[in-house]
Amino acid sequence: MDGAAHHHIEDAEVEAEGLRGKGLRKGSVPLVAAVAIGLAATAPAYSLTGALGWGALESGYQLPIVFIISVIPMFFVALAYKHMTSVAPDSGTVFTWGSMAIGPRTGWLGGWGLFLSSTLAGVGAAEVTVNAVVSVAGLEDPPTWLRALIGSAFILLTTWLVSRGAEESSRTTLILTVVQYGGLIVFAGFLIAGVFNGTAAPTAEPFSWEWFNPLAIDGYDAMLGGFLVALFIFWGFDAALSMSEESTGSSQQAGRTGVIAMMIILVTYVIFTVAALAYAGIDESDPLSLTYEGNIDDVFLSMATAAINPWGALVAALIVALSAFSATMSTVMPTARNLLAMATYKALPSRFASVDEATAAPKVATWVMGLLTLAIYLGLSLTSDSIVADSVYSVGISICVYYIVAALSSVVYFHRTAFASVRTAFGQVILPAIAVIVLTYVLIVEAGNMMDPE
Q1: Global pTM?
Q2: Closest among 17, 27, 39 to 258, alpha carbons compared
């Protein structure tokens, strides 16, 4: 950062008054669409199909309560986001707040953590989409070049759509989110009907309130394993807040969008997880089970085939593809705005600070992000035999990094003023500080796991 930008951030430390306009169009994203962007970025259908089997393997029938416990530190991070957005509604979110509250280096680290996690998530989503397209088209074992072609077309299409501006992108995202949630609710209904009709897996245990008993979790490993999966599937609610400079209403209202998205996501995940456990169970020898070797990477396909029919499996594959598509759009959107903010405050070359006059979209930042995602995807498709797993696990570390920066920014920024009332003390400092401690611990454990060749 140059001297001017550094001086600028010193000013911002007083009252966040040094925030700079970036040419984004205020009021172009309704608050409902901002919440939809947060929901789409967590991508429930895509997240669940990739993570539910692994979560069940780690935590068994206690997965619903593990998800509920895991969301607590994420909710504390959402509170930090809410309060920081109220004082500094800026598309740079974690970069801007980290620079403002702690210092430019911390902000820079947070900004790059967000950029890296979004890029890796785009790579994983591209591969999930390829799998869905392949199964819808009925291709048994397509050649690598064809898979790479489908994945590349997907990445280029989403990047092009996002480069057309927030208004159009957010409208598309809203439609895809409604379709995706509708599909999940109908699917859960079929699974519950299957449990009552007696067509569920014979090895599945009947529903029990014991699944919600935290004391029944099978030890530390089951809790931590489930938490790492939950970190991936709850991540993304913050995409709603990167649109705060463009959303309608006040910065307080914009700040609430992340918390609202988080609550809707939690209810959806818990209901669906309970329905899936009661229908499919976790017996590894049962071909219908969530943890069966052939299902674990894509639990929707086996359950939809059994609960509905082969056509149901096609519809499920289509919903997962739409989910991956809307997830990629709603992660590219905020991340391009994060790069735009980094360039505006001189932490990146000024080329990234350009905003297209017609669409009010950061076109350069959007295309750089899209093309980098494409390069990583093509590199992995030549070298990796498990692109989705590689993306899911490596994303965990970068998510932890930038969520820690966001929560820590709230603690440092508000620590002098928050203790005037109990409510602000908890919301702005104490609970975000707990999130920092939990996520730092998870980060260290996850980094240790990643370094272990086994």
Answers
A1: 0.83
A2: 39
